[in-house]
Amino acid sequence: MPPRFWWVGAFGGAAAGIVYLLVQEVSAVLGGRPVDEPLRLFAGVVLGARALGPALSANDATVIGTLVVLIGSIGSGLIFAWLVFRFPGLAATPGTLLISGAAYGGALWLLTFYVLGVLFWPWLARTSPETQLVCAVAGFGIVLGACFVAGGIHRPSELE
Question: N or C terminus: which one in the chain shows less Cβ crowding within 10 Å?
Fold first, then answer.
C-alpha cells in the first residue's frame, strides 16, 4: 500500500475522531447531560467503571477520553485506508468514498456498542443507540470519507 494511503488514513482518522468527539459533546449538552459524560465513557474503556464516578477528575477524564478516541480513530482510519486500497471500488468517486465512510462508521458503531460494549463496557448501553449511530455515521464515517476525498484518494488511476 502506498505511503500516501497510510498518511491519509492516520490524519483522516484523527480529524474524524476530533469531529466525532465534538459531536458527542454537543449531543450531551443538547440532551441535558454533563458535558464531560462522553469523555468519561471513553476513559472508561481503559480505566473501567471508576472513570464514571467522582474518583476521576474532569481534567483527567478529558485527557484520557481524548487519547482513547484519537488512538482508536487513527487505528480505524488506517483500517479504512487498507480497505480502500484493497477494494478500489470503495473510492471510485468522491460520492462512493463518502458512502463507504458512512457505512464504515455504522459498522464501527455496531462493533463498539453491540459487541465490545456488551462484552467489556456495559455502561455504553446507557447511551442512546440512535444518537450514537448518528454520531458514528455523520461525525466519524462521513468525515473520514471526506478526508480521503480531500487527500485525492478517490482518483481511480492511483488505485490501480
Answer: C
Tens-place pLDDT, residues 61-111: 999 999 999 999 999 999 999 999 999 889 888 999 999 999 999 999 999
- Other beta carbons within 10 angstroms of residue 8's beta carbon come to 24
Model confidence, pTM: 0.90
Integer Cα distance of 145 and 96 in angstroms: 9
Where does residue 48 fall: left (phi above 0), alpha (psi -120 to 50 degrees), or beta otherwise? left
Triad 97, 100, 103: Cα angle to 5°:
150
Q: Which of 109, 143, 138, 121 is nearest to 42 (CA)?
A: 121
Output DSSP code: residue 35: T
